[in-house]
Design goal:
With about 260 residues, the chain is an alpha/beta fold. It has a single domain, classed as TIM Barrel (Alpha-Beta Barrel). It is built from ten helices and twelve strands. It has helices spanning about 30-40, 65-70, 85-95, 105-110, 110-120, 160-170, 190-200, 210-220, 230-235, 240-250, and strands spanning about 5-15, 15-20, 25-30, 45-50, 75-80, 100, 125-135, 145, 150-155, 170-175, 205, 225-230. An eight-stranded parallel beta barrel has the order 1-4-5-6-7-10-11-12, surrounded by six helices. Helix 7 links the parallel strand 10 and strand 11 (about 205). Helix 1 runs parallel beside helix 2 (about 65-70) and helix 8 packs across helix 10.
Length: about 260
């Protein structure tokens, strides 16, 4: 049986880790390299960095930050935000990231997924998807894709988009629930399960983690391969080791954190 992954997400703005609720009311928390280094020492399996203002400001990602992270962290990490083309992907990967996450760019230019997979391998291309519930019958799954921090609908059904991204060559999908993001009230289990059942590539659940039980629920009921957390560790409520211990007690197979 494959181990389930615990991933910490660091949203970065002006070289500071920041966190909000449903993409609003963000507060700065600390230096991304220092925080990433601590999570690495604590035994997290992977890290994700999102430069949350790069796309809106029409600028490339902070590549020096990526290089600094690579010098201090020796586990896989992915980077998203401000990825505009194949060359940006190349620069990020050469700077030390293992994976590149594309979200708005992939929606606007789906062929970037295929191009990235061909150039660097499927395992390097992660589709980042922000989705929310919709009562509009045009969305058969009950969920629509949105971009630009959840502000802009794009007339895409979440499950259909996941299937298309896989067919284009995405090696992984990170599914973030806009409705649950930052609430710490639990992941959106139905959304995660529908996408997990629709594709054959790993699915990362994102948005809503508040306690270890939430991770257990989304890995079992949501059928996710990995669970992404932010607030519950950023604010010191839980430690990486503590989360993994609770997951193990619940029968979830995880890589052991160092003592």
């Amino acid at each position: 049986m494959l181990t389930k992954r615990l991933i910490v997400c660091l949203d970065v703005r002006n070289r500071k880790v920041t966190k909000g609720v449903k993409f609003e009311g963000n507060v700065d928390l600390g230096d991304p390299v220092e925080m990433a280094s601590q999570y690495y020492r604590d035994g997290v399996d992977e890290l994700v960095f999102y430069d949350i203002t790069a796309s809106a400001e029409n600028r490339p990602i902070d590549i020096e930050m990526v290089r600094d992270v690579a010098k201090h962290v020796f586990i896989p990490f992915s980077v998203g935000g401000g990825i505009r083309n194949l060359e940006d992907m190349r620069v990020v990967l050469l700077a030390g990231a293992e994976k590149v996450s594309v979200n708005s760019l992939a929606v606007k230019t789906p062929e970037i997924i295929r191009a990235g997979a061909r150039a660097f391998g499927n395992q390097c291309i992660v589709l980042g998807m922000d989705a929310r519930k919709s009562s509009n019958p045009v969305y058969a799954s009950g969920y629509e894709v949105v971009i630009q921090g959840g502000r802009t609908p794009v007339s895409l059904d979440a499950v259909e988009w996941a299937r298309k991204a896989e067919s284009l060559g995405a090696g992984e999908i990170c599914v973030n629930s806009i409705d649950a993001d930052g609430t710490q009230a639990g992941y959106e289990l139905e959304l995660t399960r529908k996408i997990s059942e629709a594709v054959g590539i790993p699915v990362i659940a994102s948005g809503g983690a508040g306690k270890p039980e939430h991770l257990v629920d989304v890995l079992r009921q949501g059928k996710a391969d990995a669970a992404l957390v932010a607030s519950m560790v950023h604010f010191g409520t839980y430690s990486i080791q503590g989360i993994k211990e609770e997951m193990t007690k619940s029968g979830i197979l995880v890589r052991k954190a160092p003592v």
